[in-house]
Amino acid sequence: MKRNTSVSHDETVIRRLRQDPDFAVEYLKAALEDEHEPRVLLIALRQLAQARGIAKVAKAAGVERESLYRALSSRGNPRLSTLVAVAKAVGLRLTVEAA
Questions:
Q1: Tell me: the pLDDT tens digits for 60-74?
Q2: Rounded to whole angstroms, how far apart are CA atoms 99 and 88?
């Protein structure tokens, strides 16, 4: 008998981020639009970095892997330059538009 294995929400999102660049763009846009919870952006960037490989993203962003883990953690407080570097490392950029 075959067992159903469950996959966590995070794993599902990371898999989709890895496979679908358009989804990654929309996912990050939605995270930026959440005015009430700024940590959503950190979660989205962390998942995107995990999808692309933390070590690879850290190297491309010019930060140490451990520093990137810390910056994107639930207690992280990254500098804007780190956020911009991570977005660039995964092939995206953060933008601002009129509300």
A1: 999 999 999 999 988
A2: 24
Please, what is the angle between helix 39-52 and helix 54-61, to 10°? Answer: 110
Indicate the pTM of the whole model. 0.84
The domain ranges of the chain are: 9-89
Helical segments of the chain, H only: 9-19, 21-33, 39-52, 54-61, 65-71, 80-89
Return d(Cα 9, Cα 51) in angstroms, integer: 13
CA 69, 62, 49: angle at the middle one, nearest 5? 40
Expressed in angstroms, the distance from the first to the final Cα of the chain is 54
